[in-house]
Design brief:
This protein is α/β, with parallel strands linked by helices and 1092 residues long. The protein has 7 domains: 4-148, no CATH class; 166-333, Rossmann fold (3-Layer(aba) Sandwich); 347-370 and 378-416, no CATH class; 427-513, Arc Repressor Mutant, subunit A, CATH 1.10.10; 514-664, Alpha-Beta Horseshoe (Leucine-rich repeat, LRR (right-handed beta-alpha superhelix)); 702-881, Leucine-rich repeat, LRR (right-handed beta-alpha superhelix); 972-1092, no CATH class. The strands form 6 sheets. It has a 23-stranded mixed sheet, with helices on both faces. It has a 5-stranded parallel sheet with strand order 2-3-4-1-5. Strands 28-30-32 form a 3-stranded parallel sheet, with no helix packed on it. The radius of gyration is 32 Å and the shape is globular. The two termini are 49 Å apart.
Length: 1092
């Protein structure tokens, strides 16, 4: 965690350099004092690496570091004010006053005040430096200190073994993952079968954050019987972060059956390993790999001698390691445990003998909450289990753990903290503070990539030229994703929104504890923490439904705040003001009545980032132009916000401006002066005589992301041409919106529809908004032309070689999809929704005459709410979509999927088909692993899906044939009108079956062997069946296990007759040894209440 302080020192140094270059010291008469400040900070910088590293265990060093940081923050405040005065001077110069001496004479009190503050700061820095002598800091450079081995207490070595501990294995998911990986390992590829591939070894990778269960899954695979039977030799290597190449080779030689004879030269050891493995078909696990060098520099060459069909399985936290060892795509990413599996794992850890079981089950309601707090991280669950083992199995003891400070990282056991610490310490110095800052962002809101980067820039975390800060921020953001420290939220495309694992978040908040506080209004001791300590960054979230209020007055003491993030309501008085926080750089206010604060906003001299979301704000202060440092402004989902003040044109440093989903309908003329803008969203298209707001976009050549709305207001195509989108060579993201004319049913709202002239007009406007070839992401929404823009056709689209994602929503009058998309070399995702005029997707979509396969890189395609679409033509001989993995079809009139899709989309893994009223069959998809079908009343057949592992069926009453799904592991069936289980249940044999049905059917199932449904489910290993009651969809349940045979339920015949139910145990004689259990505390499933 060292270099966070060092990185901040670099930021202060950059500010000093800028002040010197601008001759601000001379301007204010304090040149000597500013020079001294620079020298003193330079001297102190020598101690920073060692000081930051030691503060984790030494509270006295922690105090010294905190004091130094505060002094540095004071320095940035002073330098900010100096720069503001310099800006005023330059403005005065343009008006004829350019003499620095005159400037000082006109501002003698200010010059004296600044001089006094700088001298006081220099004295403080002297005192801090004197105190440093007592600590004996290591003065080595950061590079030297980084190369040293950490102390044994923080050793990054973690030896793992292939030996399997079943106490750490729970849940259906790990069974499914193990089977899938084993199948991949033992399967011969086409290239291996035909000897077309000279590569004898294939490498696969398991990727995930520390503690997620990578090693456990690798052990399961390693110990599988099929692995043992299919390979001549199995080898397990624990690699670790600080591996030694010689020792790694020696270990591999020993495990391969060779003798290394204590050789130390790699050139000698490699042939020894090669000889030991020659001709053998091996299975090698490389666990906990931090660098691809462990493969490329050590093991890859010796393994060239092995037999064809050999496999290597790598586990790593870093996606780039998987890429570096040339692992086969896609990598296997481990999902977090669901709540029930987390509880099962916790229960395993706590039970020490068979007699403990009933006692622990009585505590399930508390244990489940503890398991949920572990955030699905197996390591965290195990650590908590170890802690609970030391406690009595009493409700008050477990409640103490649930509510204890253990959930802050400062109290977490070392095993868990160090697991995360290793990932943190391995981060490049410049990214550590970005990671820590991300942990401040409240979990309840979706935080965009651009918003996060904007905050980093505002806090000075990104060091580079002004032109490339967003690119640098994107690089850091991607780095955190690759290291699995933040995780993309899958419902958002292009990794634009990420989340942070709760345990990782707790660790990061602990590291930043002296500067930052992130809390929920209901957290114990929150107000007392605010009273006892002055923070630099504060993040506060509160649910709208919570009765306990938070008063603005409780924040008043936090005068030194640089970041304030508020999500949820806060009580304010008319007299409240934002000037209580004069040092603020970043302000994010969401779902808050900020109207009373608007007038005082202009007094925040240091503010760089202002984002207000879901608020009643109607305007910004007229003097916002005086906030010279403002770089980011967002008024998002603020329906009452209408007018942009003219003074915004004075903000020459503005980089980001977002009015998305607000009511802004005009912008001030002269907007084109904001040439520093990188991101502009919610820009309104408007006309006023011969002037059009799109004219103002022409000079904005630095734009990376542009969103224009209300394009239906543009009546002259030449106005669109003046936007000069084709000349914006940095533009990667483009959002072109018209106001939608479609209703909730997906059809045009106005009976009169849209005239042909209006259709031609809007098509002409879009034709002129042709972007540059740099485009990567395109979002068209509300377009009502008959055809999409010409630059999306086959004649023009080929120039967009970087385009990866296309979204097309609310295409009211468009009659066909564009024919130019199929030739885009990098296109990965197409998402089309609400296109009621498209009835047919013909051969033009695939361009069958192309020499290469159409859509060569497409991975995901969504075709949703195309309510009149009834024909998809794709002949079997037309090659297309070889990499397509995900297909979503919803609310269309298709009867079947085209034969070409089944023949050529051989990478297709997931199909979701919902609300397709006429779909009658799904057949012959050899590669599909997951299938979801819902509300398809005509669906009759699902056949020949030999690799299907997970099948979800919802309300498909005509489905009669379910065949050719021999690999099925999990079946979910939902139909509350169903009176009996379908006949096809006799012919399928998933390991897990989940049923959501009526109470009547559940009662029949609860009868067990004596009931009418027994023959349809008794052959399945695990069955969970549920029926709803009012708001609880899992009120009633039946839980069945085949071996050892047990059936547990809280349903009786009296229940279905409307009487209240108690858990009952069924006295039914089963064929095998019968096990019955009376669950006194009931069966708790997610949010279900305990049945007592």
């Amino acid at each position: 965690m060292a270099i966070v302080l060092d990185a901040f020192a670099s930021y202060v140094a950059d500010m000093l350099k800028q002040v010197v270059e601008d001759e601000v010291g001379m301007l204010l008469g304090v040149t000597g004092q500013i020079d001294k400040m620079g020298v003193k900070l330079g001297d102190l910088k020598k101690f920073l690496a060692d000081a930051e590293r030691r503060r984790i265990t030494d509270t006295s060093v922690q105090g010294w570091v905190t004091e130094l940081k505060r002094a540095m923050y004071d320095a940035t405040d002073i330098l900010d004010i100096c720069q503001l005065k310099a800006m005023d001077h330059h403005a005065a110069s343009r008006m004829g006053c350019c003499n620095p001496l005159l400037f000082c004479l006109r501002n003698p009190l200010f010059a004296h005040e600044i001089g006094t503050r700088i001298r006081a700061l220099n004295q403080k820095l002297d005192a801090i430096k004197e105190r440093s002598a007592a600590f004996g800091f290591d003065l080595a450079s950061y590079e030297d200190s980084c190369s040293k081995v950490h102390s044994s207490r923080l050793s990054t070595s973690r030896e793992t073994s292939w030996e399997l501990d079943r106490s750490g294995v729970v849940g259906e998911k790990i069974e499914e993952d193990t089977r899938a990986l084993v199948e991949i390992m033992v399967r011969r590829t086409e290239a291996e079968t035909s000897n077309a591939d000279n590569n004898r070894v294939m490498v696969f990778a398991i990727v995930g954050v520390g503690g997620i269960g990578k090693t456990t899954l690798a052990r399961e695979v390693f110990n599988d019987e099929a692995i043992n039977a299919n390979f001549d030799k199995r080898i397990w290597l624990s690699v670790n972060q600080d591996f030694d190449k010689v020792e790694l080779l020696r270990t591999a030689i020993t495990l391969a059956g060779g003798k290394h004879r204590s050789e130390k030269a790699l050139a000698v050891l490699r042939p020894i390993l090669s000889d030991a493995l020659t001709g053998k078909k091996i299975f090698l696990v490389m666990d906990d790999v931090w660098s691809h060098e462990a493969w490329g520099d050590v093991l890859e060459t010796p393994l060239n001698a092995v037999a064809r069909g050999s496999r290597v399985l790598v586990t790593t936290r870093d996606t780039r390691v998987a890429r570096g060892v040339k692992a086969v795509l896609p990598y296997h990413h481990i999902d977090k445990l669901d709540d029930e599996d987390a509880w099962s794992l916790l229960r395993k850890q706590v039970i020490s003998s068979e007699t403990d079981g009933p006692e622990v089950d009585m505590l399930k309601d508390i244990g489940l909450q503890i398991a949920v707090k572990c955030g699905g991280l197996p390591l965290a669950v195990k650590v908590m289990g170890g802690l609970l083992c030391q406690k009595d199995k009493q409700r008050h003891e477990w409640n103490m753990v649930l509510n204890d400070s253990i959930w802050s990282a400062s109290e977490m056991p070392e095993e868990l903290n160090y697991s995360i610490y290793f990932s943190y310490e391995d981060l490049p110095p410049s990214i550590k503070q970005c990671f820590l800052y991300y942990s401040l962002l409240p979990k309840s809101a979706a935080w965009s990539k651009n918003g996060s980067i904007g905050m980093w820039i505002s806090e000075g975390f990104l060091h580079g030229t002004s032109a490339d800060l967003e690119e640098l921020g994107s690089k850091y953001y991607k780095e955190l994703i690759l290291r699995n420290l933040i995780e993309p939220v899958t419902i958002w495309s292009d990794q634009q929104v990420c989340s942070m694992h709760d345990v990782v978040r707790s660790f990061a908040q602990f590291v930043a504890r002296d500067e930052a506080l992130a809390a929920h209004s209901g957290d114990t001791g929150f107000i007392s923490k605010l009273s006892a300590h002055k923070f630099l960054r504060l993040s506060m979230e509160k649910n709208v439904s919570e009765s306990d209020g938070l008063d603005w007055s409780s924040l008043h003491a936090q005068k030194t705040l640089r970041t304030l993030i508020l999500v949820g309501p806060i009580s304010m008085k008319p007299s409240d003001s934002i000037v209580d926080f004069p040092c603020l750089r970043t302000l994010h206010a969401e779902s808050i009545d900020v109207a009373v604060l608007v007038e005082s906003l202009g007094k925040l001299k240091h503010l760089r980032y202002l984002l207000i979301q879901k608020s009643n704000i109607s305007s910004l202060p007229d003097n916002i132009g005086n906030m010279k440092f403002l770089q980011f402004i967002g008024l998002v989902e603020c329906q009452q916000f209408v007018k942009v003040p003219h003074s915004i044109l004075k903000l020459g440093q503005l980089r980001y401006l977002n009015f998305y989903d607000s009511s802004v309908n005009s912008i001030p003329r002269g907007f084109c002066v904001l040439t520093n803008l990188r991101n502009l969203r919610g820009f309104p298209a408007q006309t006023d005589g011969v002037w059009c707001s799109l004219d103002e976009l022409g000079p904005l050549s630095e734009l990376r992301s542009l969103g224009v709305q209300r394009l239906e207001n543009v009546s002259v195509t030449s106005s669109a041409a003046k936007a000069k989108l084709g000349e914006k060579v940095h533009l990667t993201h483009l959002f072109l919106y018209c106001s939608s004319i479609l209703g909730d049913d997906g059809l045009i709202k106005d009976e009169k529809g849209v005239s042909e002239e209006e259709q031609r007009q809007i098509a002409g406007v879009f034709d002129e908004l042709c972007p540059s070839p740099s485009l990567e992401y395109l979002d068209i929404n509300g377009f009502f032309g008959r055809r999409l823009p010409r630059w999306m056709t086959s004649r023009s689209a080929a120039v967009f070689k970087s385009l990866r994602i296309i979204l097309m929503y609310d295409l009211a009058c468009c009659t066909q999809l564009p024919d130019g998309l199929c030739q885009l070399p990098c296109l990965q995702e197409i998402d089309t929704r609400r296109a009621p005029a498209i009835k047919r997707v013909g051969p033009e979509f695939l361009q069958p005459h192309l020499a290469t396969a159409a859509f060569p890189r497409l991975q995901k395609m969504c075709l949703v709410d195309m309510v009149e679409w009834e024909e998809w033509e794709w002949e079997e001989q037309v090659q297309a979509m070889p990499l397509l993995e995900v297909l979503e079809l919803e609310n269309c009139r298709l009867r079947c999927l085209p034969p070409g899709l089944a023949s050529h989309a051989r990478a297709l893994k997931s199909i979701s088909a919902q609300n397709n009223q006429h779909l009658n069959s799904l057949e012959n998809f050899a590669s599909v692993v997951e299938l979801e079908v819902a509300k398809s009343p005509d669906l009759e057949r699902i056949t020949n899906l030999p690799n299907l592992r997970k099948l979800e069926i919802e309300t498909c009453p005509k489905l009669k044939v379910l065949e050719g799904i021999c690999a099925l592991q999990r079946l979910v069936l939902e139909d509350y009108a169903m009176e009996t289980l379908p006949e096809y249940m006799r012919d399928v044999n998933p390991r897990h079956f989940e049923l959501r049905c009526s109470l009547t059917l559940l009662t029949s199932i609860a009868a067990g062997q004596s009931g009418p449904e027994w023959d349809r489910f008794s052959h399945i290993d695990h069955v969970k069946a549920y029926a709803p009651d009012e708001n609880n969809t899992r009120k009633w349940y039946v839980l069945y296990t085949r071996e050892p045979c047990s059936l547990i339920t809280n349903v009786s015949h009296s229940t279905s007759a409307g009487k209240s139910a108690q858990p009952c145990h069924l006295n039914v004689l089963f064929h095998s040894v019968h096990l019955t259990r009376l669950v006194d505390s009931g069966y708790v499933e997610e949010d279900q209440e305990v049945v007592s």
